[in-house]
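Records of this kind hold a single protein each, on a pair of labelled lines. With that in mind, the following record should read easily:
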Amino acid sequence: MAVEVKVPVLPESVADAVIASWHKKPGDRVKREENLVDLETDKVVLEVPAPVDGVLKSIIRNTGDSVQSQELIATIEEGEAPSSRATGAIGAERPAAAPTGRSDGSATTTESPKAAAGDHAPSVRRIAAETGLDPASVEGTGRGGRVTKEDMLRGPSAPVSTALTPVASTAISVAPGQRAEQRVPMTRLRARIAERMMQSKNSIAMLTSFNEINMKPVMDIRKKYAESFEKAHGIKLGFMSFFAKACTEALKLHPIVNASVEGNDIVYHGYHDIGVAVSTDKGLVVPVLRNTDSQSLADIERAIAGFAKQAREGGLQLEDLQGGTFTITNGGVFGSLFSTPIVNPPQSAILGMHAIKERAIVEDGVVVAKPMMYVALSYDHRIIDGKDAVLFLVAVKNFLEDPVRLMLNL
């Protein structure tokens, strides 16, 4: 019996998706819940699992096609694969790998853990044909070690970087004296980021205020309790949980910073859902920590670690990225000392963290060196006055310079 494979129901905020890559081809056996195809939306990459065991009978929509919710994209013949002698219609059995002799007389196979040439995505095969680069010489970072388009552009045996690199220089073959260019279409995620940034620039009266925070009290707590915290909670104690809690408490004191604009109305949110910017090789995503006012430092650290892992592996769900009343972004992990972050609409404010550097400051009339961090609050000046923004930053500073108050809810 033929079973239909359809695009999952997409949220209202996602109009359509693009077929990024098929992991099976017609005639391949599939198992229930095995990933058949990746769909790229403007927020995340969705996996479409096989609904039943059987054989992929036909692919109706190809790589690069735009598809919508519940659209038919493939069919599966449920049950065991029919014999190629009997039908010849759904592909013949693949021959077993040829055995090779071993010194002990036993047989081994020459089958490689990498996908066979015909199993690669169309984009990988195209790059291989254009450049002559053998996918077998490239380290695969996709699921199950599969070679992706980005791996091919990166080149053979190149280390994987977590930085946001566009296209590796190894993808362009240049003769001496020539000036090369390469035109690469934006991914759906990058195009969506560009759209959101322009929306923010054109619709928000944005202003940024700054302050600096002495991070020594937080660093002392981390140093003193890092080992016992990890033993008790199974997660490392980082800086982001302190910032998330400090921002939550500051938002309670200054609820206008947690509000948003809808038409001529100001919507005050009685909850605190904080987005945390996570960098991936495809762009920046902002999963949301829900109800941070009721979460402990350990809860926040576990959630952030889970989001980071899912972002790297492409496992974030659409609901993880939706909503949010405030955002924190940390450019300091890349060495940024100072920046003006862009508000993520419909939110009204975003806090930018930066690198911690020892600087000379004056304490009790004495010049001393302290680990200092510049923080920036970009905000929608239509509803947030400069006074509110400055007082919010001062509250964040006070909580982090006396972090015991966070733990005692003072």
Notes: The chain has two domains: 2-82+116-171, 205-408. The CA atoms of residues 69 and 210 lie 44 Å apart.
